[in-house]
Write a structure and sequence with these properties.
Largest sheet: 5 strands, antiparallel
Number of helices: 7
Radius of gyration: 26 Å
Order of helices and strands: EEHHEEEEEHHHHHEEEEE
Shape: elongated
Distance between the termini: 25 Å
Helix content: 25-40%
């Protein structure tokens, strides 16, 4: 029976664990590296932290998940001009709530303008209009015949805050490196030299600084590019050091050291 590379207990039951997280579009899975208990724990903690940090970039590129699901929608964002928006995949803005304006004309009439993100917001907009014009008698069906569908620009700008970091973020990436090692060389992944990785990924014991290797110059890491915005994970040995690299969307690269006391076989693994 295989053993979980994190708990080192025999795996009684295991659903497919993605070597690289499913939300990135990865499809390579293994039933022999992570037990179901830890899969559930990772899916509610470190995988969520990693996915949340990368949401704006996934939205920009419309990256689908490994099961074909659409990229994330960034919800409830306020534009500088006051509109409340959802950004659908590809940074496509859509009004999250209607905008209703009533302008009093010199001749006593009133000009009403409604802007909707989707037609289903019409009833919501009508209620907003009745708050401004209580005596209004028009109904929703009448409004449907009067309206027309047009696309327009938002009037202001939307600021997206993108930030990478935190122990849970790095635990999620380190998990992908160690998953890759376990899927290709399960015996090596059970070695005591990886106990620090196991404890950090499984329970958050330790600090990310013990594993993250920061790039000290502007030169890109010499790793293969599978495509302009592809994801990739690499594990390699260098003397007694075993190192991993995660590459997100072609250009976001993080380097790790999984152990400085590895004495096993030479490894060159890429996925």
């Amino acid at each position: 029976m295989p053993h979980c590379i994190y708990s080192q207990n025999e795996i009684a039951e295991s659903d497919a664990e993605h070597v690289l997280q499913n939300f990135l579009g990865a499809r390579w899975t293994s039933h022999e590296i992570v037990c179901n208990e830890l899969q559930a724990d990772f899916g509610e903690t470190i995988d969520v932290a990693l996915e949340r940090s990368l949401q704006p970039i996934r939205n920009l590129f419309g990256t689908r998940g490994g099961r074909g699901g659409a990229g994330p929608i960034l919800r409830n964002l306020e534009a500088s001009s006051g509109e409340i928006l959802d950004l659908e995949p590809g940074l496509q803005p859509r009004l999250r709530q209607p905008i209703v304006t009533v302008t009093n004309l010199p001749d006593g009439r009133r000009l009403v303008r409604m802007q909707l993100g989707v037609l289903g917001h019409l009833g919501w907009a009508l209620n907003m209009l009745r708050d401004q014009i209580p005596e209004l008698t028009v109904d929703e069906n009448s409004l449907r015949t009067l309206g027309r569908s047009v696309e327009s620009y938002i009037q202001g700008t939307v600021q997206l805050d993108v930030g990478f970091g935190g122990d849970d973020y790095f635990r999620g990436m380190l998990k992908s490196c160690f998953n890759l090692l376990g899927a290709v060389n399960p015996d090596a992944a059970q070695l005591p030299c990886f106990n620090g990785v196991r404890e950090f990924v499984r329970e958050g014991v330790g600090q990310s600084q013990s594993f993250v290797r920061w790039i000290t110059n502007a030169d890109p890491l010499p790793v293969p590019r599978l495509g302009p915005i592809d994801q990739a994970v690499f594990v390699t040995t260098r003397n007694t050091s075993i190192e991993g690299v995660i590459q997100f969307f072609g250009d976001i690269v993080h380097a790790f050291q999984l152990s400085d006391s590895y004495d096993g076989d030479l490894l060159r693994i890429c996925r």
